[in-house]
Write a structure and sequence with these properties.
The complex is a heterodimer. Chain A is mostly helical. Helices cover 74% and strands 2% of the residues of chain A. In chain A, the strands form two sheets. In chain A, strands 1-4 form a two-stranded antiparallel ribbon. In chain B, a hairpin with a 2-residue loop joins strand 17 and strand 18. In chain B, the strands form five sheets. A six-stranded mixed sheet of chain B has the order 6-7-8-3-9-10, with helices on both faces. Chain B has a six-stranded mixed sheet with strand order 16-19-20-13-21-22, sandwiched between helices. Classes of the chains: A mainly alpha, B alpha/beta. Chains A and B meet through helix 8 and helix 9 of A and helix 10, helix 11 and strand 18 of B.
């Protein structure tokens, strides 16, 4: 019987391990620093997670359809730089739609390569990570981009404004999460995303245009990246070319942490939101207990590994197995 | 049966999982030099029993004896070292390595400094391959071998230890008839050398052809052991499913209507050529032939998965081009594919979503999927096909093979197709569900569907079809009516004998 109980604990950890770890983190941080659960700190965490979160929403679609998107970080730098530059040239009301169009063209290109040409998404998006970075530097000539007249524009609204006492980035994150959650959970398109990621061959045999579904997931992802770029540009009103560097891994960590399987076919928008918040709170907690910010790079990596391990463990029903 | 000491005994094995008594005091005795069949429906406990024997699971109580020796199987490796060897349904070979490397994988003979002793490896492997009388060498790359020969490699691996008992789990599932003959020779050879063989299969012909005794499990309980020579299919079936099964030939045709689908001179590269047939509403057209005869490829062409080089496809008398599954579905053609898990279902998705997947675009409530309509479809077909599942939220991967197949059939029936193509409708499904699916296919025809059934099992084709198309090497040899067909004429047609005499 003792063996049985041990096994049950193993299964529970395999399924709910992330939540358990999160609760332990929260308790630990709160004991270490009273401020951790204060309202202003909580709001601060959500606000600073919003940009990452918006990107994670889009990547959730890509991951559920069974692919990866490692290009979102450098794509976000691109949209930030572009919208800042165009702001002073053609004004904010034209700059924003122009930036969305350009960013979504990049998403469509990736979608075409992965969906229609059926190229490996890891290679395509890793390549695009580098290619888009080059594109951004070419566009900016390597210089930082700044809005000249920071006071005389309504552009700061997205990153710095608030409505009903809630910061706009949080509202935008919540609104996008709600819309995309409906799209994924309630529409025929969402159902097809799950089918393509769960079993692409069976999806084809069921009359689903697999290439089109994959294509659209990347377009959605790039739309979310454009939103994130807008928030980033509006918050800082100026930017380096590398503002989104490394975010692709944090985004992926949040999605996997939320419980989407890297194998495709599972995950939800809600779970991704949870994953984003877990990641945000852990990074914030590390700062509050007095660790240097660069410690979080190590911790984030540990979390990714942990999440991937638990993902596999949940599939085979135990934490460790002699056979793969 | 040369000796009175059994090769292997399982005594009163009990294995419980939370809430389930998977094995309830099961005993099994295998004598040296006998082929012992283990039969039962899916979920009867066969695989659990074999996993206990193989050291994958530990029993709650009961004993395992090898010879006179009570043993505990600690792990699969432990079981192998004690002479209990499994030939699995799914092969576990490294395709890029040679035959010899696969046979001795993990225990390659060494020279100094850990270098592999290739000469000795090839010599030892050749000795085993000689015994198996196979036509390939130790140096052959495993990926270059046919499935049957790969299975031989798996068997050769079993012979590296002094095997007391060898367990074959559905070994013929992916073999052609010719390949089966070779496999049966090997089993006969094992038997002659005094090894006890446990043979797990759903295929009655093989059971009667190969085995000496048959043990039957039902719902985790031991239902008895019979001498193969003294029993019949009816008796076995009754023990397995607890009722009688109707395996008679169908001669009462439904009322046959207009031609729903006609194919004229369809050709596709080297896969098949000049295939012509027609299927009417209210009729089941069987396609019979060996693996590789081109039957599945014809079906895939009709479903828009392959482009034909020549020929015409006519639906209700009108010529059509079918470029993709999307177009096929739009024209009322449905395909229940051969590979249920690979092509038919999204295993991680629930029952309802799988069932409504092809029509999810049409079930709309505003911008969203009409879940109420989906549940209504699920309920309707669950009742109609008697699908046993706790509810629509159940993941399809958790259902038994028979119920999974019914989900796939329901998925296409709910599209109200003009032509329903069913490829290998009962592969890997237990006898009980098999006959239900056969009855279902007959009912569909009776209700005015045009149905095409592709099968590699002769009893199945004979049982369900009104007419039978026999294919050989990508050509239609002959079309039989169910009145004129005999087993002999069918066998001759699919092996190409008729073709030569007729030509």
């Amino acid at each position: 019987m003792a063996e049985m109980t041990k096994r049950d604990v193993g299964q529970f950890l395999a399924r709910q391990g992330i939540l358990v770890a999160f609760v332990i983190f929260i308790i630990g941080f709160t004991l270490a620093n009273q401020r951790f659960l204060a309202v202003d700190n909580v709001l601060g965490v959500i606000r600073s997670s919003a940009i990452l979160g918006v990107m994670a929403l889009g990547v959730t679609f890509v991951v559920i359809s069974g692919n990866l998107d490692l290009s979102v970080g450098s794509m976000m730098s691109f949209s930030t730089i572009v919208v800042l530059d165009l702001h002073d040239k053609i004004g904010p009301s034209l700059a924003i739609p122009a930036m969305f169009a350009m960013t979504m063209c990049l998403g469509a290109l990736i979608g075409f390569l992965v969906g229609y040409l059926k190229l490996n998404s890891l290679i395509v998006t890793l390549g695009m990570l580098s290619a888009i970075h080059g594109l951004t530097l070419t566009y900016s000539g390597g210089k930082n981009m700044d809005i000249a007249d920071k006071e005389g524009t309504w552009f700061s609204l997205f990153g710095q404004g608030s409505a009903l006492g809630i910061p706009v980035p949080i509202l935008m994150f919540a609104l996008l999460a709600a819309l995309l959650s409906l799209l994924l959970a309630k529409t025929a398109f969402g159902r097809k995303v799950y089918a393509v990621g769960g079993n692409g061959v069976a999806a084809t045999f069921s009359g689903i245009r697999r290439a089109r579904v994959v294509f659209l997931t990347y377009v959605i992802s790039s739309f979310c990246v454009a939103c994130a770029g807008l928030l980033q540009a509006s918050r800082s009103m100026g930017s380096q070319n590398t503002v989104g560097q490394g975010l692709e891994l944090e985004v992926l960590a949040a999605v996997i942490l939320g419980g989407a399987s890297l194998l495709g076919g599972s995950g939800t928008v809600f779970k991704t939101v949870i994953g984003v918040l877990i990641l945000g709170f852990i990074q914030n907690g590390l700062l509050l207990v007095g660790l240097e910010f660069y410690v979080q790079y190590v911790v984030t990596w540990v979390i990714i590994i942990l999440a991937v391990w638990l993902d596999i463990a949940a599939n085979r029903g135990r934490l460790w197995s002699p056979i793969a | 049966m040369t000796s009175f000491t059994p090769a292997l005994r399982l005594q009163d094995i009990v294995k419980t999982f939370p809430g389930v008594r998977a094995l309830d005091g099961v005993s099994l005795t295998v004598l040296p030099g006998e082929v012992h069949a283990l039969m039962g429906e899916n979920g009867a406990g066969k695989s659990t029993l074999m996993r206990v024997l193989g050291g994958v699971l530990q029993p709650n109580s009961g004993r395992i004896l090898i010879g006179e020796e009570p043993t505990i199987m600690a792990s699969p490796l432990d079981a192998k070292s004690k002479g209990v060897v499994f030939i699995h349904q799914e092969l576990s070979l490294a395709e890029e390595l040679s035959v010899a490397e696969n046979v001795y994988l993990g225990e390659l003979p060494r020279k100094s400094f850990g270098r592999v002793d290739w000469d000795r490896l090839h010599e030892k492997t050749a000795a085993i391959l000689d015994k198996l009388k196979v036509g390939f060498t130790p140096q052959t790359r495993v990926g270059d071998l046919s499935l049957a020969n790969q299975q031989m490699v798996e068997i050769a691996r079993a012979l590296t230890v002094d095997a007391k008992a060898v367990i074959f789990d559905e070994p013929t599932a992916s073999l052609t008839d010719a390949e089966k003959v070779v496999l049966f020779d090997v089993i006969a050879d094992l038997k002659a050398r005094g090894v006890g063989v446990i043979y797990i299969s759903h295929r009655m012909e093989e059971i009667f052809h190969m085995t000496d005794r048959i043990s039957i499990l039902r719902d985790g309980q031991y239902r008895g052991t019979l001498h193969t020579a003294e029993t019949s299919e009816e008796e076995l079936t009754q023990l397995m499913i607890g009722r009688k099964l109707d395996l008679s030939r169908k001669i009462n045709h439904a009322e046959v209507g207009a031609v729903a689908l006609e194919v004229r001179g369809l050709s596709c590269g080297r896969l098949y050529s000049d295939v012509s047939f027609e299927v009417r509403r209210g009729e089941v057209l069987g396609f019979y032939g060996l693996v590789g005869a081109g039957r599945t490829e014809v079906a895939e062409t009709l479903f828009g998965l392959r482009d034909p080089d020549a020929g015409q496809i006519l639906l209700d008398g009108e010529e059509v081009r079918i470029g993709s599954p999307v177009e096929a579905i739009a024209r009322g053609i449905s395909l229940v594919p051969e590979d249920r898990k690979g092509q038919g279902l999204v295993l991680g998705m629930n029952c309802r979503d799988n069932m409504t997947l092809p029509q999810v675009d049409d079930l709309k409530a505003g911008p969203f999927v009409a879940e109420g309509a989906e549940i209504a479809i699920f309920d309707q077909y669950r009742d109609k096909l008697d699908i046993r599942t706790p509810g629509w939220r159940q993941k399809v991967g958790n259902l038994s093979g028979g119920n999974q197949q019914k989900i796939v059939i329901a998925k296409w029936l709910s599209m109200h197709p003009n032509v329903l193509i069913v490829d290998e409708p009962t592969r890997g499904i237990d006898v009980g569900s098999k006959s239900e699916i056969h009855n279902l296919i007959r009912d569909l025809a009776a209700n005015g569907f045009a149905v095409i059934v592709i099968s590699s099992e002769m009893p199945e084709v004979l049982h369900v079809s009104d007419r039978i198309v026999a294919m050989h090497h990508g050509k239609v040899i002959r079309t039989f009516t169910s009145e004129e067909v005999t087993e002999e004429s069918l066998v001759q047609a699919i092996s190409g004998i008729v073709a030569e005499t007729a030509a």
